[in-house]
Amino acid sequence: MNQAVLNSMTAAEQRLVAETSRDALSALDEDELLDLHGRIRRARSKYVTKYRSGASGAVVKRGGRGFSYPKNQRDRDKAEVFEAALAQVSKEVGAHAARAAAELKASRLAAARSGSSGPQKKTTAPASGAPASRQPAARKTTGGVKKDASSRAAGARRQAKRDAR
Hints:
This protein is mostly helical.
C-alpha cells in the first residue's frame, strides 16, 4: 500500500487498515471478520462515492473528465487502499467459510457412518397441560424470512384495501 496515502488518513482510518494485517486477521473469528468486512466496505464506498461525485461536479467546471481527473487523486487513492484491505478481509472470510463447510461436511459424514440421523430432539408434553394435539400448527413458508414477511404484508394490504370499501 502507498505509505503516503496511509499517512494522510485519519487515525480511525489507519486503525481500520491496520486491522487487516495478517496477524490481526488470524486472531479474528468468523463473526468478527464479517463485522470488519462491513466496516471496510462502508469506508471504501464512502471514498468511491466522494471521488465519483467530485469528479462529476468538476467536469462542468473544468471542461471535461480528463481535466478533472487529477483533482480527485486523494479520494481515489483512499478508495484503492480500502479496496486492497477489503480484498484481504474477503479472502480470509472465504477461508473461514471453507473451513466451516469442511467441518460440517465431516461431522455429517461421521454421523451418517455411525448410523445416527443427527441430533435427537426430546419430545415432551406441553407444560400447560394441553394435549399434544393442540400444539401450534406449522407455519407455511416459502423459503425465506424476508419473503414470508413480504408476503404477509402484501396480504394485509390487500385485506385493508377490501375493508376500506
